[in-house]
Write a structure and sequence with these properties.
Blueprint (H helix, E strand, L loop, with lengths): L8 E2 L4 H18 L8 H8 L8 E7 L3 H4 L2 H15 L2 H17 L2 E3 L4 E2 L12 H22 L7 E5 L2 E7 L2 H4 L1
Antiparallel strand pairs: 1-3, 2-6, 3-4, 5-6
Helix pairs in contact: 1-5, 1-6, 4-5, 4-6
Length: 179
């Protein structure tokens, strides 16, 4: 092809697919409890309705580059373990934590030409639990970021929400203050 394309990679049909879906179901509640969580674009619009901007209002939209692959698997697993221990009995949480580690170790992707790939860090879009796993970990990053801003006495955004890798926030101030 005359342009750059990204290979479509699928893990469907591999033994890890069903296990990841099971884990996804267990992580969804914790993922949706992250303060910045937004289910879809409709929810973004609902949050913005009724907001009365001023001349100092800045609406910022951003995209996290390489969201899934850039999420540290170790950090995600640490947060997943914390969440699972808070939700389940010790034995079941331990089982789910080991399941997540097994999935990450053995997940295999296949491109349209039949070539197989194994990720060594981060998460793949095709991993059934990558959305809630990375959302939980990004929630921790966001909490730490907001705390750092507060410690520096930087005004916090009026609204800050994220859906996977799409961020939207409202800031009251000048562009110079925002930078």
């Amino acid at each position: 092809l005359p342009c750059d394309v990204r290979a479509i990679i699928s893990g469907i049909g591999y033994p890890t697919t069903r296990a990841a879906k099971c884990l996804c179901n267990e992580l969804t509640e914790a993922s949706e409890a992250v303060p910045s969580f937004v289910a879809d674009t409709r929810q973004y619009v609902q949050l913005l309705q009724g907001y009365k901007p001023t001349s100092r209002t800045r609406l910022v939209a951003a995209d996290v580059k390489n969201h899934y692959p850039s999420s540290s698997r170790l950090n995600c697993q640490r947060e997943i373990a914390r969440q699972l221990r808070a939700q389940h009995t010790r034995a079941f949480a331990s089982f789910l934590i080991k399941l997540e580690q097994w999935i990450c170790r053995w997940v295999c992707f296949e491109d349209y030409q039949g070539r197989k790939y194994r990720m060594t860090d981060g998460y793949g879009i095709g991993m059934g639990h990558s959305d809630p796993a990375t959302n939980i970990e990004y929630g921790v990053r966001e909490r730490e970021m907001m705390q750092r801003l507060q410690n520096l006495r930087v005004p916090l955004p009026i609204l800050y929400r994220r859906r996977v890798d799409d961020i939207i926030f409202i800031y009251e101030g000048t562009e110079e203050e925002l930078k």
